[in-house]
Design brief:
The complex is a heterodimer of chains A (390) and B (259). Chain A has 390 residues and is an all-alpha fold. Chain A is 72% helix and 0% strand. Chain A folds into two domains: 1-184 and 351-390, no CATH class; 211-220 and 235-347, no CATH class. Chain A is globular, with a radius of gyration of 21 Å. The mean pLDDT of chain A is 94. By secondary structure, chain B is α+β, with helices and mostly antiparallel strands. Chain B has a single domain (50-258), classed as Alpha-Beta Plaits, CATH 3.30.70. Chain B is built from ten helices and nine strands. Chain B has helices at residues 2-22, 25-29, 62-75, 97-100, 111-114, 129-133, 159-163, 202-206, 212-216, 232-239; strands at 50-55, 92-96, 117-121, 139-141, 147-149, 170-171, 195-196, 221-225, 255-258. Chain B has a three-stranded mixed sheet. The chains are: A mainly alpha (390), B alpha+beta (259). The interface between A and B is large, with 44 and 47 residues.
Chain lengths: 390, 259
């Protein structure tokens, strides 16, 4: 089945080579970081996690979102998702790989990574994060690969992958819950110290992840004539809309608690993000873009008339991805460190090195996704689900 | 052909045999895990929980602060003057009262308190969040209450820095060696990519000495076992009104302040 990845047209190979070039450029930046240390980043003693950990957090959400396809299919027997479930699981695999890479590039001593296994520490949330992320990766590889292989051999799916699929449902919830626990259990970081952090993470994951999946499926449709099905896309769009509404609602409850209680520590980060604090406000522009795109995407997604229009749906989803990415991939992690332990504002912005290394990690993820989806498309074409190319 | 190969193998085997027997046994032993037993010096100071009282009234001039900071940084190979201020390393330093104690601030606080400098360092908390979050036990709490660091186990994930509510932890964003002015060969130097902080001079306590900052403070810092009712520090804590940084977080800091 793997051989399907080696037979492609010119477009496929140019895309693969393009990604390899990006990975190559990024790895030069990474080698520079390895040789000099994290001094090449914009991080410091006050904002000690930056772009890498923020991207990690966002992509844990994207990985967890595969469950939004798995639940309707396996628990509600919603057959319209039967053809896209493999693609969703493959996307989860690529996303977890992106997460793991972002953790590794953030380490000061990456060669000591396996100290986490040599000295297992059950009172550290990172220990559980390691278990749930790697477990989720393994589950998704096993389920998607074996089911696709059964299709390839034209035999029914094995029973045990169905059992694993059931296990993967709570497991997907666990990866984002544990990731939220990384933040919400720390004393003295007011912006993170909130019981609804895990719920916020899950709701933003269940809208942003499927939104990325829908956009990628639409691209796939253009490139390969694989039709995910109009109804499948519309159902996903409905799920995305509900999840985004919950996400916005939870965000607003945070704003209410902070400002009605009038507790300075709880307000400080919000003020820094949206208005600026002590004369600093690197992220103000971004945060207001988040507000505008967040509202705009709901205006497009809530009325079914707009949502069912394929072109408008694409616009809505792009706006949604932008809004959730600014919230979780930018404001959340950096905002948690500002103001610092001394109530001072020390700002952070990523350096070119950080952006290049992030580009490398994204490209690795995209390459994994490309190869896996290529295999998926190859098998489906053989089965006649996708019309043969001329 | 075969003959030649046999000859080469013979020579190789002989060379290997000679070189192996010629090597001291320690060469092989160095790859084995060492199971040495640490012998405690009888001079070592012992405690249930080391603690510190900082009498801020006795820190009057700039010199009082500098003397204490230098006493620590010079013997612990702490790099100085790192060009990027955001990435500097600090074990003990001065901070304005209103920043060190943000929860004690009020808009009408007398100016002499608001802008008063106080010495800050790792609080060696009784319930340290940094120890709770470390995924490798590279930072851990010793029997005598010191929050310790293993610089060789730390993977540099910086989770402890996110967890510490006191900003007491520094990360080596770059190789610190070029910025260490006076190297002390008796204390470990650090490499890039690991976290470090004040260790309450565990190496001096082993020799029966007081921490360097305490010694240099001319009586402004009192050090001792806070659970020993007969210790000097317990007496000072009983007789004075003391405060700790951010008590509401439940970390139970062991560095107390007299304002």
């Amino acid at each position: 089945m793997l051989e399907k990845a080696f037979y492609g047209d010119k477009k496929y190979w140019s895309w693969v080579i393009f990604l390899l070039i990006l990975i190559g450029i990024g790895s030069i930046a990474y080698i520079t970081q390895l040789r000099n240390g994290l001094m090449v980043t914009g991080m410091g003693r006050d904002v000690s996690w930056g772009f890498y950990i923020a991207q990690f957090t966002y992509f844990v959400g994207v990985a967890a979102s595969a469950v939004m396809v798995v639940i309707p299919l396996y628990l509600h027997n919603y057959k319209k998702f039967e053809e896209i479930v493999t693609f969703a699981e493959f996307m989860a695999v690529a996303s977890v790989i992106i997460c793991l890479c972002f953790i590794i590039v953030d380490l000061g001593q990456p060669q000591r990574l396996f100290n986490v296994l040599l000295h297992p520490t059950p009172h550290s949330i990172l220990f559980y994060d390691m278990i749930v992320l790697n477990g989720y990766l393994l589950l998704n590889i096993l389920i998607s690969w074996n089911n696709l292989h059964a299709d390839y051999r034209r035999v029914p799916h094995p029973k045990w992958t169905k059992v694993l699929a059931y296990i993967s449902i709570p497991w997907a919830v666990s990866i984002h819950t544990v990731t939220a626990f990384l933040y919400q259990g720390l004393p003295g970081r007011h912006y993170w110290l909130t019981a609804i952090m895990a719920a916020r993470f899950l709701s933003s994951a269940f809208c942003s992840g499927p939104a990325i999946l829908v956009l990628l499926l639409l691209i796939l449709k253009k490139l390969t004539k694989f039709d995910p099905g109009k109804e499948a896309i519309q159902t996903l769009a409905k799920i995305i809309t509900y999840a985004m509404c919950i996400n916005v609602f939870l965000f607003l409850t945070e704003v209410f608690t902070s400002f009605y209680s009038n507790i300075p520590g709880h307000k400080a980060t919000f003020i820094y993000l949206f208005k600026g604090l002590q004369g600093h406000g690197n992220l103000i522009g971004w945060m207001w873009v988040m507000v505008v795109t967040g509202i705009a995407c709901l205006v497009i997604l809530i009325p079914s008339k707009f949502r069912n229009n394929p072109e408008l749906l694409v616009v809505g989803l792009i706006l949604l991805i932008l809004a959730t990415w600014i919230d979780k991939g930018l404001g959340l992690v950096v905002g948690g460190f500002i103001p610092n332990a001394f109530e001072k504002v020390i700002e952070y912005s990523p350096t070119v090195y950080e952006l290049l290394i992030a580009m490398m990690v994204y490209s690795i993820g995209l390459l994994v996704l490309t190869i896996l989806w290529k295999i998926g498309v190859g098998v489906k074409r053989e089965l006649g689900i996708i019309p043969k190319q001329n | 052909m075969d003959n030649k190969r046999r000859k080469i193998l013979k020579i190789a085997a002989a060379t290997a045999a000679v070189s192996f027997t010629g090597l001291p046994i320690e060469t092989f032993a160095s790859y084995l895990p060492k199971i040495g037993k640490y012998v405690r010096s009888d001079k070592e100071k012992k405690a249930k929980q080391w603690g510190m009282v900082i009498d801020t009234r006795k820190f009057k001039t700039k010199e009082d602060f500098e003397r204490v900071i230098k006493a620590c940084h010079s013997i612990h190979n702490v790099p100085e003057d790192i060009p990027n201020k955001k990435q500097e390393i600090k074990w003990i330093w001065e901070e304005e009262f209103s920043h060190a104690f943000p929860d004690q601030e009020n808009p009408f606080l007398a100016e002499r308190y608001e802008h008063k400098d106080v010495i800050v360092l790792c609080n060696h908390c009784q319930h340290p969040p940094c120890v709770r979050v470390c995924p490798t036990k590279a930072t851990f709490k010793r029997e005598d209450g010191i929050v310790m660091m293993d610089f060789h186990r730390c993977i540099g994930c910086r989770y402890c820095m996110a967890a510490c509510p006191y900003g007491s932890r520094s990360f080596n964003f770059r190789d610190p060696a070029p910025f260490v002015k006076h190297k002390n060969p008796k204390f470990p130097t650090r490499m890039r990519g690991v976290v470090e902080k004040c260790l309450f001079c565990y190496e001096r306590l082993e020799e029966g000495k007081l921490p360097a900052c305490v010694e240099a403070s001319n009586g402004a810092i009192i050090f001792g076992d806070i659970f020993d009712p007969n210790s000097e520090i317990s007496k000072v804590l009983r007789e004075n009104y003391t405060i700790v940084r951010k008590p509401e977080l439940g970390t139970e800091p062991c560095v107390f302040y007299i304002i």
